[in-house]
Amino acid sequence: MPVSLPFMKGIDPGVKKGPDTRKIWFRIITLSLPLVILLLLEGILRIFSFGGDTGLFIPNPREGYEQYMILNPEVGRKYFRKLEYDAPPNDIFLKRKPEGTFRIFVMGSSTVVGFPYEKNLMFSRILHERLQDAYPDRKIEMVNTAITAINSHTLLDYTREIIRQDPDAVLVYAGHNEFYGAFGVASNESMSKSRLLTRTHLALMDLRLYQLFRNIIGAVMDKAGSAGIDAVHGTLMKRMAAGQTIPLDSDRYRLAMKRFEQNMEALVSRYTRKGIPVFLSEVVSNLRDVPPLSALSSGQEDEAWQKFTMARQAYANGDYDIAITLFEEAKDLDGVRFRASGEVNRILRELSRAHGVYPVPMPDRFREASPGGIAGNNLMTEHVHPNIAGSFLMADAFFREIVASHLLGEVQHIVYPSDYYKINWGYTALDSLLGHHRVTNLKRYWPFVPPDVDLPDYRLHYRPHSTSDSIAFEVFRNPALFLDETRLSLARQYEAAGNHGAACREYEALLRTNPYVAINYRDAASCLLQLGDLPLALEYFRKSQEFERSFYATYRMGEISLIKADYGNARRCFREAFELTEDQSERLKTLGKLYMACVYGNQEEDALAIAEQLRRYEAGQYLAIPPKRYTYLRYVPYQTREQVTAAMQVLEEGDAERALSILENSLLRYDSHVARRYAGEISIRLDRPREALDHFSRVYDEFAFDPDFLQEFIYLCIGQEEIQKASESLERLKDVDPENGSVEILAGLIAHVQ
Description:
Elements: H1 21-47, E1 57-59, E2 68-71, E3 92-94, E4 101-108, H2 110-113, H3 123-134, E5 139-144, H4 152-164, E6 169-173, H5 195-204, H6 208-224, H7 236-240, H8 251-273, E7 278-281, H9 293-298, H10 303-316, H11 320-333, H12 342-355, E8 358-360, H13 362-368, H14 388-405, H15 418-424, H16 429-442, H17 458-461, H18 467-477, H19 483-496, H20 500-513, H21 518-530, H22 534-545, H23 551-564, H24 567-579, H25 584-600, H26 604-616, H27 641-652, H28 656-669, H29 673-685, H30 689-698, H31 707-719, H32 723-736, H33 743-753
Parallel strand pairs: 4-5, 4-6, 6-7, 7-8
Antiparallel strand pairs: 1-2, 2-3
Helix pairs in contact: 3-14, 4-8, 8-12, 10-11, 14-15, 16-18, 19-20, 20-21, 21-22, 22-23, 23-24, 24-25, 25-26, 27-28, 28-29, 29-30, 30-31, 31-32, 31-33, 32-33
């Protein structure tokens, strides 16, 4: 018999007892409770808007822009706790990418932001315009994601968000901030030498609870004096640099290079795995005219200084090959590492080769444009930031590589040289003066002078020399002022004084600074009307309509179309303008223009109906219209008006060759439709039909409603055996001028050639 012990009473040894369900649930709840509490706290923090959205992109909050995404102006809080941060550029892009759109993202830091200038001189703005001109049939979006003082840690953190936005190409210019930029090995915004911990920290920063913990711990450390930022004043350069000197090949130097290579390798790999083309640029420095910062900041002639002195002597002797080697060595030995060493560019070149991405040889472009092949103050403002000429050169370097890649297909339009854009770009003396003041102030602090040197405050002692200088200096001196506001005020003053040329240049700078605001385009277009540049005015009015449909822009587009004899488009614009206003006087004025467009365009039925409507409103004065005349050629853009006038005078004197030369030289500065047409007509006189046809082809759309132009164009096409073009233009001539007596003759010539 089995033995029954007292403590076994009531237990049947033959029955296996199941798990206690209540205990299991208790354990699950106990283990889950901390997670539930954390999630609850996270939710509460989000409800009360603690911290912020650290995502790179957010829906555009501006009314009327709901279809766009914009760069998050607060994204910098993710990377900077101790120091202030700048918002990224104000680029926007459509939430739903339209078919055929080519979307480019640009990555980098202060050079890519355009420092020391405003956003109108970012190389990405210039590049965008150049690409759009070269590929007019493609919609191109250019999104600049740069923030001052970030480096490869931040760029790598951006990649997944950029990939989610369906990029067609990514442009990268980075490498100078690996030591002192956020999370750099010698930065005041560094948190750990461990790359894994840094990446984990950045991943957790999307949580509001983690942001709270970071702020609490940071505040405690700051109060304890262990954060290392006590009373650090001066420029951002000075405040970012915790460890000031980093010798070549030291432990910290090697760690920075290792981190840079790892981060950039990961960045490039993420894009290439998704089939996204990457244009990876090497970085450029001021070699010739900025001595080693280690010597400037210490006041001592170290090894880097000695190399620099030898380089200058070799340069003065014309030994440029020796000089560039010595300048590079001096830069690499410079222990105050605000300029990337040669190893950075070596890493970038190797990554380009290893991953099959598009290399952008930026140093080569700068050498080609520099005396003796060594870049200095001719292209740079200080140690690493390009001046205005350098910004256009950067845009040109990327433009060349993008065109050569054929990602956008074959170039569809004339490619203007970089200097053409530099001449016509939207920037003024305000921009160069503001940049000058920022750089001058920068150079009065470490590392351009020793830390114990206390120079007089530039902001208190400088005295402006002109009105523009006074405005630029006040914007520099007073952080509460914005250049856009003061520029707009100045433009209005110029306009009121009748100086439309100066006003237009300021308006152009405004729209290049913020190309997503309708009023900027309308202001510039209104000035251009006064200055005779109807094609560009029409383009700007059209562009304004992308962001805001307005009566004024639509009405003006109708007026320009009337002048061009594009009566169909004029009718469309005036009908739309009529619907966009409730003002009775504007509506009657618009009906009057619509009546004119109908009469000139032989739309008799519509003209009669509109006339009756005008009579009902007792507005019969609009029925008295002048005889139809083609006046488009009278509007000569102000940029080339002087040259066109001179050419016509020389032509009257019988010197067609010289007249043509004057016009062709003017086209190098500004491609005026009038100058181009006259150049074509003079080429006909000089019996150069091929040149004439080239000129006419480039302005065909501008003069496609002028019967005289169409006749000349058809004759040229027949002579050059371009029969399809001739036939298409003949059909247009029949449409534009059905009673034209040349139609039968031209049709016979085409039939004979065929």
